[in-house]
From TrEMBL:
The lineage of its organism: Archaea, Methanobacteriati, Methanobacteriota, Stenosarchaea group, Halobacteria. Its EC number is 2.5.1.157. Aminocarboxypropyltransferase that catalyzes the aminocarboxypropyl transfer on pseudouridine corresponding to position 914 in M.jannaschii 16S rRNA. It constitutes the last step in biosynthesis of the hypermodified N1-methyl-N3-(3-amino-3-carboxypropyl) pseudouridine (m1acp3-Psi). The keyword Transmembrane does not apply. This is 16S rRNA aminocarboxypropyltransferase. NCBIfam families: PRK02287.1 (NF002621).
Amino acid sequence: MECHIYYEGDDDPEKCTARRLEKFDEATLHRTMGRVPYGVVLNPHADRALSPADAEDGLGTLVALDCSWESAEAASFKMNGVHRALPFLVAANPVNYGRPFQLTTVEALAGACCIFGDRTRAEDLLEPFRWGETFLTLNEEPLRRYSECVNSSDVVAVQNDYLADDEPSSGEEGRS
């Protein structure tokens, strides 16, 4: 699975997971939106949840936006591709540990790879991060269940199980 990232450069360079992915040749950073290839765009504002059925739609390409959460408005995601929102997952990164939906770029890409059934690729992406394995451990059950779904509706049903059991404390609404 190829990983591409539209990089806005507004995060702290020391904490930027996208830059580290580029350094380890795990992803390609694009500083111009027009150069980002067509693929499955991980977009928290998308109307549909990411599911295993989307793996073929992106032609083997995942696309993420790397920007601060403060600037991650819907307009920031105007990239060509199939836009999908990640379902309920919990962050393992030191800044947002335990917070649902507050994932770093690498966590989002790794989560998508797991949903697509490519855990090995997810492990490769997370390997440069001390907390990378923790992300997979924290989300082991939901990632397994999402990867067994047929379509977006099934993923939303699984997500709703988690949201009913553990209402997010940050006030975030569940994404569909």
